[in-house]
Amino acid sequence: MDLLTFVVLLFVISVAAGILGSLVGLGGGIVIVPVLTIIFGVDIRLAIGASLISVIATSSGAGATYVRERITNLRAGMFLEVATTTGAVTGAYLTTLLPGRFLFVLFGLVLLYSGFAVYRKRHAAPVLTVSKDRIANSLNLHGSYYDDAEHREISYKVTGTPTGLSMMYVAGMVSALLGIGSGALKVPAMDLAMHMPMKVSTATSNFMIGVTAAASAGFYFARGQIDPYIAAPVAAGVLGGAIVGARLLGRLRGRTVRLIFVTVLVVIAAEMLQRGVVG
Amino acid sequence: MNQSDGGDAGAPIGRADGSARPPARDGAVEPVAQDGPSVPEDRKVRQAELAISLVLRVGVGLAVILVVTGLIVVFARLGGQVPTGHRHSYKAYTSLTTPFPRSVSQLLTSIASGEGQGIIELGLVVLLLTPVLRVAVGVLTFLYEEDIRMALITLFVLIVLLGSFVIGGAS
Questions:
Q1: How far is Cα A197 from Cα B143, in angstroms, rounded to an integer?
Q2: Is the pLDDT of residue A169 over 70?
Q3: Which residues of B touch A2 (CB under 8 A)?
Q4: Which of A3, A56, A240 sits opposite B93 (nearest CB)?
Q5: Per-residue pLDDT tens digits for B80-128
């Protein structure tokens, strides 16, 4: 296969990754990493570098639309970034201390459980109208957005910020340790612990993952993991896909987004377990 | 292509927005009594959202232009060198031993000599810096909204982020 064919194929696959990633609040690494390693036989370190590019491209590409449409909860997102960025820095220090395989198995199991919990919540009341959470009330982390699928303004209250912050800290740590799994833990933190609507959770996760990924970008660049020939089609394709995905999210029902997210989570969990057990 | 996409999306969203929150739009005309401060505050929040959205769109647009230009340069140069693309397997470009810039000085040298890969990496650096710039603009917008606590929280995130770049670059 010559370079041009490789670039064109990877671009097309990246468009799909961008659409999926922007809908469920993940970075699209779930598509990019296996495609590069299994189909194209690229070294895992370069694949993870490309995945980092894909995360930032999804986040900024779709984020522009989500923020303007007010689906993103800006205040909650920026507040929770305190936990994800400090978690990412801690994780970068721990990489040398902890055995990677054990972590893959552990987080594979955690993701399976949170996938189950997110799925079980599909019939629950969609939003809270009162909150006793002192942090959320004091910083006014509550929000509202216009839902294109339900054709009405939805106001919601945020709760459980201490639990949400702890889960975000772990999410930041995991993304630095394993190079993946950042949005996979952020969405459950907001959906389950903080009771934010599903679409708000994925859009806000999407908003935050770019910053978490940027926190480790310096390391990846200096280690030579960002190969321009791989990253260029990934960046361009994912950005295009993210812009398409961002226009789709508004029109989809919260429940549909939830089911797509759970499916993706199960696939990631299987991928992590496989990497932990088989190596 | 990105810019035009954003422009198209703007029209229906703006309308949905206007119907959803008319007070924010007509605030200046409406006579307001004790709720006085809350109406301009609403507009400030909207301006902050639009500013952050704009930062993301400009960053992403610039990154795409650079990355695509870089790719065109790469293939233009390859086309000139090798008549049969067949001999140029992608493997040579996608291994750990592929030569490409890994530091700022190498990046500058590469761009100066007109290499496509240097232009691509520059686009990637713009892409990586976009979320950082977004956080910095977040600090400014919270100051503009006169929300000191949120401004300090966002400033903390910015400091951790910049610190990680320094540590990452040094290691």
A1: 28
A2: yes
A3: 85-86, 88-90
A4: A3
A5: 555 554 556 787 788 877 788 877 788 888 888 888 889 999 999 999 9
Report how many domains make up chain A: 1
ipTM value for the complex: 0.89
Distance from CA of B88 to the nearest CA of A (A): 5
Decide if pLDDT at A44 tops 90. no
A57 and B127: CB-CB below 8 Å? yes
Give the pLDDT of residue B29: 43
Residues of B in contact with A75 (CB under 8 A): 150
- Asked if A75 lies within 8 A of B135 by C-beta distance, the reply is no
What domain range includes position B103?
Answer: 2-170
pLDDT band at A232 (very low <50, low <70, confident <90, very high): very high
Its domain, for residue A17, covers 3-277
Residue with tokens 């926190």: A215
CB spacing of A60 vs B59 below 8 angstroms = yes
Strand partners of residue B40: none
Tokens at A203, concatenated: 């859009």
Dist. CA A236–CA A112, nearest whole Å: 31
Looking only at the bridges linking them, the beta strands covering A143-147 and A152-156 are: antiparallel
Closest CA to A177 of A233, A99, A238, A231: A99
> How many angstroms separate the CA of residue B35 from the nearest CA in chain A?
18
Report the distance separating Cα A199 and Cα B126, nearest Å.
Answer: 28
Q: Which of A272, A267, A264, A274 is nearest to A26 (CA)?
A: A264
Select the residue of B127, B157, B171 nearest A78 (Cβ to Cβ).
B157
Kind plus residue range of the DSSP H or E element containing A145: strand A143-147
Specify whether the CB–CB gap between A182 and A159 falls below 8 A.
no
- Residue B26 pLDDT: 41
Interface A-B, measured as beta-carbon pairs within 8 A, has a size of: 224
Angle of the B38-81 helix axis to the A74-94 helix axis, nearest 10: 50
Can you say whether the dihedral through the CA atoms of A196, A201, A207, A212 is positive or negative?
Answer: positive
Q: Is B24 on the interface with A (CB under 8 A)?
A: no
Assigned token pair, A53:
């590019």
Q: Least CB-CB distance to A214: which of B52, B91, B161?
A: B161
Residue B27 predicted with pLDDT over 60: no
- Burial annotation B91-118 (CB, 10 A radius, 16+ → b, else e): eebbeeebebbeeeeebeebbeeebbbb
